[in-house]
UniProtKB/TrEMBL annotation:
This is Acyl-CoA synthetase. Residues 20-419 form the AMP-dependent synthetase/ligase domain. One of its GO terms (molecular function) is long-chain fatty acid-CoA ligase activity. Keywords: Fatty acid metabolism, Ligase, Lipid metabolism. The lineage of its organism: Bacteria, Bacillati, Actinomycetota, Thermoleophilia, Solirubrobacterales. Belongs to the ATP-dependent AMP-binding enzyme family. It comes from Patulibacter medicamentivorans. PANTHER family: AMP-DEPENDENT SYNTHETASE_LIGASE DOMAIN-CONTAINING PROTEIN, LONG-CHAIN-FATTY-ACID--COA LIGASE. GO terms for cellular component: membrane. The keyword Ligase applies. InterPro entries: AMP-binding_CS, AMP-dep_synth/lig_dom, ANL_N_sf. The keyword Chloroplast does not apply. Coiled coil: none annotated.
């Protein structure tokens, strides 16, 4: 379907101004707090948005000024972001896990005049680097008064706004056009400083319309959200949920409680990252032998396909399904709360066998492709149109094609217009109306997109062979024993791979077997090394000899954002890994 421009001049500010129309008493938000799930209606949300927006105007902020939010996913994040939009300002999210130096980059590059911090701990980060931020005028804190590192509480801001009349907000909202900036989202920055991706009011309003057409969220849905709202995927899901007038339930802030909270919320729609699905997959299949699991997936998959097609299920097939449902599939659905109609996985690839299993169990986990520069999404799988291993077909009004060198190109009203203050990067990324994604892919005869790897990650061996490392890495990460896998081999005679262990799986094995922990750690245990060797051998079997990892090393710890190897969205910073573990890598070529 061909692309078009911003829709009839409509904006996200206009969407916010009418967010409660016809549904003031409906529940908009829920949030786990002190063991309870207090509710906020659309009417209450609307009132609070307007109160905060008036307060921001009272602070002297002018249309187009940037306001940052440094907080976990919670109702106040939502209230603040929508108030910023209603006041004609620009939302600049910051991951709550960012270090002070990472916060300084975003705040400084964007020129944010105000930062809304969650609590005293987040305000302290800003205080540490405030001397380097001449544009920053005010630090507002959500919880309490923030202590000496904050200027105002969010309640103080609301009080100041009492002098601003509602007509002022209406003027600001109606004066906002589709080409005005809505948000600057800083990309993960795996190879350098994050780039500020500027998304317009029209970009996101168009994206809401596209998501409606794709029927991703339906009017009676309950959405459980734990992903950071600084990430484009979480932001779009939230806006789409509010656009459809459904309830968004925010997690309680503890990621270890996500699975128990699913049973409390009983969501019908779940956006997530692969790790959650993989953990549930491992949890419910750990006691099932491979042959039984294979039969269950085959039977369940055939039943789900027939149901989707509206065809009758033969009695013998239904009987076999009922047995697997009683012993396995019902446990899967219950792990998600028992009502999940659709789950969406993003930010990283997920193993096809995991997707096939959840499909068979009646919990469709669907993948899509997108990036911040596409206002989150460009393709999406649906229950009606999906192929395991594919990231779906182009969304309505979005065009995709593959360039001669294999790079995926995207065009549509959701594609961003520029990087903030970085015209060189903008010119290199947007060419003749097409977004050059940096991803390598292929499109089959029916329009389904398959991602092969990242263009910049291609390894060229000393023998001149081009290798996409993500393929073998992803195959290795399907092992329940392996957390991360990073291939290396540029200008080297052959590829090698660094592996980190899944801490939970290894700890459980050690407890069950009473294994004696070597002085250097469990990664040195011969049994563990044998398990990893088998996983490498199995993965290598799918590739040509020159593409296989000839040697591997198991690192003594996992990669993390805190130690600098991962971005806030858990993407591997390859250059950092290569530098930090250079001695380990060099040793693999010396032995």
């Amino acid at each position: 379907m061909s692309s078009d421009q911003a829709l009839d001049g409509r904006t996200l500010a206009g969407f916010v101004s009418s967010i409660a129309d016809g549904r003031r008493d409906d529940v908009a938000l829920r949030h786990k707090h002190d063991g309870e799930w207090p509710e906020i209606t659309y009417g209450e949300l609307d009132d609070r948005i307007r109160d905060v927006a008036r307060g921001l105007v009272a602070l002297g902020l002018k249309p187009g000024d940037r306001v940052s939010i440094l907080a976990e996913t919670r109702p106040e994040w939502t209230t603040a972001s929508l108030a910023i939009t209603l006041a004609g300002l620009v939302v600049v999210p910051i991951y709550p896990t960012n270090s002070p130096q990472e916060c300084a980059w975003v705040l400084g590059d964007a020129g944010s005049k105000v930062v809304i911090a969650e609590n005293g701990a987040q305000a302290a980060k800003v205080h540490e680097i405030r001397g380097d931020l001449p544009h920053l005028e005010c630090v507002v804190v959500i919880d309490g008064d923030g202590g000496p590192d904050a200027d105002l509480s969010l309640d103080d801001v609301v009080t100041r706004g009492e002098s601003i009349d509602r007509a002022t907000l209406e003027q600001r909202s109606t004066a906002t056009g589709p080409d005005d900036d809505y948000t600057i989202i800083y990309t993960s920055g795996t190879t350098g400083p994050p780039k500020g991706c500027v998304l317009s009011q029209g970009n996101y309003r168009a994206m809401l319309e596209i998501v409606r057409e794709a029927d991703l969220i339906q009017p009676e849905d309950v959405v459980y959200l734990f992903l950071p709202l600084a990430h484009a995927m979480a932001l779009l899901i939230q806006l789409s949920a509010l656009d459809r007038g459904v309830t968004v339930a925010y997690f309680g802030g503890d990621t270890t409680q996500i699975i128990p909270e699913l049973s409390e919320v009983r969501p019908t729609m779940l956006p997530s990252v692969p790790r959650i699905f993989e953990k549930i997959y491992g949890m419910v299949t750990s006691a099932v032998d491979a042959e039984t699991l294979s039969k269950a997936v085959d039977v369940g998959g055939r039943v789900e396909d027939l149901r989707l097609a509206g065809s009758p299920v033969p009695a013998d097939l239904q009987s076999a399904y009922d047995q697997f449902d009683a012993t396995l599939f019902s446990n899967v659905r219950n792990a998600f709360g028992g009502r999940v109609r659709r789950a969406v996985s993003g930010a990283a690839p997920i193993a096809p066998e995991v997707l096939e299993f959840f499909w068979a169990a009646g919990v469709p986990v669907l993948e899509g492709f997108g990036m911040t520069e596409t206002s989150t999404a460009a393709t999406l799988s649906t229950p009606e149109h999906h192929r395991f291993g594919s990231v779906g077909r182009a969304l309505p009004r979005v065009d995709i094609r593959i360039a001669q060198d294999g790079e995926l190109l995207v065009r549509g009203p959701n594609v961003f217009g520029r990087y903030h203050g970085n015209p060189e990067a903008t010119t290199a990324t947007l060419v003749d109306g097409w977004l050059h994604t940096g991803d390598l892919g292929r499109i089959d005869e029916d329009g389904y997109l398959y991602i092969v790897g990242r263009k910049k990650d291609i390894i060229i061996t000393a023998g001149g062979k081009n290798i996409a490392p993500a393929n073998l890495e992803n195959d290795l990460k399907r092992s329940p024993w392996i957390s991360q896998a990073v291939m290396y081999g540029d200008r080297r005679p052959y590829p090698v791979i660094l592996v980190t262990l899944d801490v939970d799986r290894v700890a459980a094995w050690a407890a069950e077997t009473g294994a004696e922990v070597p002085a250097g750690g469990l990664h040195e245990d011969p049994t563990i090394r044998g398990v990893v060797q088998r996983a490498v051998d199995e993965a290598n079997a799918s590739y040509a000899r020159v593409e296989q990892a000839k040697k591997f090393a198991i690192l003594g710890r996992d990669l993390s954002q805190e130690t600098g190897e991962l971005t806030p969205t858990s993407k591997v910073k390859r250059n950092v890994v290569h530098e930090k573990f250079a001695d380990v890598l060099n040793a693999l070529y010396e032995t």
